[in-house]
Amino acid sequence: MENTNNTPQIKRTTVKEKYNQIVENFISKLENxxxxxxxxxxxxxxxxxxxxxxxxxxxxxxxxxxxxxxxxDSRFLTMNQVNNxxxxxxxxxxxxxxxxxxxxxxxxxxxxxxxxxxxxxxMQSYNVFNITQTQGIKYEPExxxxxxxxxxxxxxxxxxxxxRGEPAYxxxxxxxxMPHYHDFESENEFYSTYMHELTHYTGHSTRLDRFEKHxxxxxxxxAFEELIAELGxxxxxxxxxxxxxxxxxxxxxxxxxTALKERxxxxxxxxxxxxxxxxxxxxxxxxKEQLKNQHNSNLQNPQTMKNNQVVNNTIQNKPKKNFSPxxx
Length: 328
Description:
Elements: H1 15-31, H2 36-44, E1 50-51, H3 61-68, E2 75-77, H4 79-84, E3 88-89, E4 96-109, E5 115-130, E6 134-135, H5 151-156, E7 161-164, E8 168-170, E9 175-178, H6 187-201, H7 220-239, H8 246-254, H9 257-262, H10 265-300, H11 302-316
Helix pairs in contact: 3-10, 6-7, 7-10
């Protein structure tokens, strides 16, 4: 229909176009070896990007998108949240899109005439603003993570078999190979490399069972897993206050420029797997810490110690019994 008014028509950007713009910008930076905004944002932020009100962390592709903006604060809000808190967005500030997959279903008819429900996903998006882009909302400055001293404790908590060798993870032996600590140029390089292998570790069949499940096949399977591991290393590094080895990341991601151009959704998928890996490791770590603290608390409780002594005395006082030998 012809526009009879003189008012210019505004073309709405589709979700796919928004996403492709993000990927194209990402590829352009890789081609120009311009990863400083991404690398710099890891150092400036206190944690992975999260929602200001709920405290929930954003995931997958959205981590890359939000960090790429280079804000010094990791907290974001929707426009509705800004309004509900009595604030407003500063004039001239631009929002950042958050992408998610919305489940859909439709009825389809098969060749035999029977009808069935087909389920699928479509990409959707909404926009957020960084808390520093707003005014009229009271908030305290973030406290930057200072967990670098505890990172070795984090690694040790998984009791992973680790041997001397070039950086690698062996799924068949479920072990990690790493050079000596002093073979690296810096502490950050050592730990970001270990986080890369630790992300591979989560793909084992007894954990996230990722190696045979992602949808990129053929010769690209190995490279896809490497992309997951490098993004996972970056996410884990930020969680522990470590600056990722950006030179290493550039070399890994540069090998994916052609693939990203042909299939932009690969980055979304890899980032989603990297988030699952990070969550798996952090949740397991926190659970172990919680159980350990609970155990230590029980040991310090006089009543618990008394009960344990009663149980021990009861076991010791039971009649002896001849047990059949067992094969260990």
